[in-house]
């Protein structure tokens, strides 16, 4: 929502309606919260400065400042030094099982969210020595390197960097949908995987892509997926936002305890 649309929406909500009760700053805070809950103001969206919003709505600057302050205290808005006021980028935390192999797209759909992918880089070339070893390939067998930003309901959640042998996927694989669906369509859906999780902090470039602060916590997940015949079909390194995910595993007590 651009500045003009935001002003029009706030104006239409009757902040000065005499039938409403409560101070003006409360009404403004409620109107902004409503726009966020309705999805008209997205996480990370910039808000006008206090003076600009006050002049546009014909309110006192203190009214706008107090509304912003209350929403920041509630975690709805956030202030970024030198940049202004933004809708909070904090997201509802999600639990992800460590024992179930599923694609990002399928996982988001099961939660009632709309998954999407934005391609950051897509190349086809020969594997590195490490990739040749992990994937069990000859040095001249081509691989698809697919770097994508994974989103749910338009919110960036993870940067995924996948390496897949072309022989399992085909050179025309697009990359915007589910990679596992594409592998399944070619008869090469993975059935098992080994994952390694590491706590890391995001470099400035990755943080900017995920719309979080540089140095923000993240989970690095390295996954090697295999077919039924044990051939490796995928090697992926993904950085998941640390404020969005909790990875959980159910453990059983051994008989020797």
From TrEMBL:
Example of a GO biological process term: negative regulation of DNA-templated transcription
PROSITE patterns: HTH_GNTR (PS50949)
Domain HTH gntR-type: 22-90
Signal peptide: none
GO MF terms held by the record: DNA binding; DNA-binding transcription factor activity
One Pfam family, short name: GntR
Keywords, in A-Z order: DNA-binding, Transcription, Transcription regulation
SUPFAM superfamilies given in the database record: Chorismate lyase-like (SSF64288), Winged helix' DNA-binding domain (SSF46785)
InterPro entries on file: Bact_HTH_transcr_reg, Chorismate_lyase_/UTRA_dom_sf, Tscrpt_reg_HTH_GntR, UTRA, WH-like_DNA-bd_sf, WH_DNA-bd_sf
Highest taxon of the lineage: Bacteria
Protein name: GntR family transcriptional regulator
Organism whose genome encodes this protein: Rhizobium phaseoli
Lineage: Bacteria, Pseudomonadati, Pseudomonadota, Alphaproteobacteria, Hyphomicrobiales
């Amino acid at each position: 929502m651009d500045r003009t649309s935001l002003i029009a929406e706030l104006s239409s909500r009757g902040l000065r309606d005499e039938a409403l009760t409560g101070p003006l700053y409360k009404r403004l805070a409620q109107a902004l919260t409503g726009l966020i809950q309705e999805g008209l103001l997205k996480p990370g969206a910039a808000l006008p400065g206090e003076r600009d919003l006050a002049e546009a709505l014909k309110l006192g600057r203190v009214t706008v400042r107090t509304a912003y302050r209350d929403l920041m205290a509630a975690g709805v808005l956030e202030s970024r030094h030198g940049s202004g006021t933004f809708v909070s980028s904090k997201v509802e935390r999600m639990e992800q099982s460590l024992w179930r192999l599923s694609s990002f797209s399928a996982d988001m759909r099961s939660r009632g969210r709309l998954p999407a992918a934005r391609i950051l880089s897509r190349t086809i070339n020969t594997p590195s020595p490490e990739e040749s070893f992990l994937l069990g390939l000859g040095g001249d067998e081509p691989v698809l390197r697919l770097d994508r930003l994974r989103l749910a309901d338009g919110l960036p959640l993870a940067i995924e960097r996948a390496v897949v042998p072309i022989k399992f996927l085909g050179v025309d694989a697009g990359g915007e949908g589910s990679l596992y669906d594409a592998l399944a369509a070619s008869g090469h859906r993975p059935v098992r995987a080994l994952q390694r999780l590491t706590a890391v902090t995001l470099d400035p470039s990755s943080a900017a892509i995920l719309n979080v602060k540089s140095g923000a916590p993240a989970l690095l997940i390295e996954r090697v997926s295999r077919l039924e015949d044990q051939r490796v079909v995928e090697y992926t390194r993904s950085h998941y936002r640390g404020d969005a995910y909790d990875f959980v595993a159910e453990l059983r007590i051994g008989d020797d305890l």
